[in-house]
Hints:
The protein is 32% helix and 29% strand. By secondary structure, the chain is an alpha+beta fold.
Amino acid sequence: xxxxxxxxxxxxxxxxxxxxxxxxxxxxxxxxxxxxxxxxxxxxxxxxxxxxxxxxxxxxxxxxxxxxxxxxxxxxxxxxxxxxxxxxxxxxxxxxxxxxxxxxxxxxxxxxxxxxxxxxxxxxxxxxxxxxxxxxxxxxxxxxxxxxxxxxxxxxxxxxx
Length: 161
């Protein structure tokens, strides 16, 4: 991997990124738990009501089906750099998967990593005959998912008093 300084940021060139479903070893070694908890602390898109989700997150990771976590690993550094968490849910359409979390380390953003993780998630859903869904709680999230090909299905409003 080559790092090039560009203003205040380092630009990463020639990355060897491996995309895969998380293994039991990665879950047991707490790599995903630690990474996801770090993501919660760093997230700019975390809605206010979700700020204390650490315990719930640890519980979900420890009981998850291995196919529910898709990770991106920088092969050169052997470092976890991104993940998407899928959550199976029964809906009126049958089994669907909701995106419960997606996070890419700041130095690795804007390189198509989230898009590739979501493509793998979409393939998993397609294989299972399920829809891939997400709830967006901020305008930034909404724009991200719309740019990735998601369509708005409903609106939720609240009265501010």
